[in-house]
Amino acid sequence: MDSITQGFIRAFELIFHLNAELFGIILLSLKVSGLALVIATLAGLPLGAMLGLKRFPGRNLAISAVNTLMGLPPVVVGLFVYLILSRKGPLGFLGLLYSPTAMIIAQSILAIPIVTALCHSAIVNVDPLIRQASRTLGATQRQETLAIIHEARYGIISAIVAAFGRVMAEVGSILIVGGNIAGYTRVMTTTIALETDKGNFELALALGIILLLLSFIVNAVLHAIQRKGMVATQ
């Protein structure tokens, strides 16, 4: 019990003393996950809007596929990206394996279906009267689309926040494609796994505390957005 208490004490000391290694890992985690989230949003929002607003052959199949991909096993994604970026893979000449770029690619693949599916859900749940009112007022197709997206904005923001929480907690895929290289590809989740195996609980606990704090902030923001959306629709 004393060793556990000492571990927590040392963990908080690392945090409050602004340990360089600790904050380097945190900053890299935020950079990788942040860029993956930007890519996922730029790809997922238009896809979600298209699935929600357009009617085309195979639409229901595409929606089912996106919903299925939300549950992609991270290690499978990591394996797929590894094979693509490995020396013998089709993109091996780029030399991206075991780099932050490879980690961003893996996280983006995991996040895009989440953003797409949740944005689609938010858009299809918009009151049909919004579309009818836009058409009655002579809005163009683009203006009508923007009006619907604006009405679904709280759901869309919730989708982005949920995707951010997903990528921040990811470990399997980025461990495969990043290699967990100290000072280069070592992020919070992979460091926690490594340091726990090594018995270095102080750093693992410090990162775990930071990760839990970030998770709490993400969920608090998501809850606030959902409440604001519920109030706005009443």
Helicity level, as a percent range? over 70%
Largest sheet: none
Please state the oligomeric state of the protein chains shown.
single chain
Order of helices and strands: HHHHHHHHHHH
**CATH-defined architecture:** Orthogonal Bundle
**Name of the CATH first level:** Mainly Alpha
Distance between the termini: 51 Å
CATH topology: MetI-like fold
Number of helical segments? 11
Rg over CA atoms, rounded to whole Å, is: 21 Å
Give your account of this protein's structure.
This protein has eleven helices and no strands. By secondary structure, it is mostly helical. The chain has one domain (2-233): MetI-like (MetI-like fold, Orthogonal Bundle), CATH 1.10.3720. The model has no long low-confidence stretch (mean pLDDT 86).
Indicate the topology.
Elements: H1 2-16, H2 20-53, H3 59-69, H4 74-85, H5 100-124, H6 128-136, H7 141-151, H8 153-168, H9 172-178, H10 188-198, H11 201-233
Helix pairs in contact: 1-11, 2-5, 2-8, 3-5, 4-5, 4-9, 5-8, 5-9, 6-7, 8-11, 10-11
What keywords describe this structure?
mainly alpha, 11 helices, 79% helix, 0% strand, globular
Give a short overview.
By secondary structure, the protein is mostly helical. The protein has helices at residues 2-16, 20-53, 59-69, 74-85, 100-124, 128-136, 141-151, 153-168, 172-178, 188-198, 201-233. The protein has a single domain (2-233), classed as MetI-like (MetI-like fold, Orthogonal Bundle).
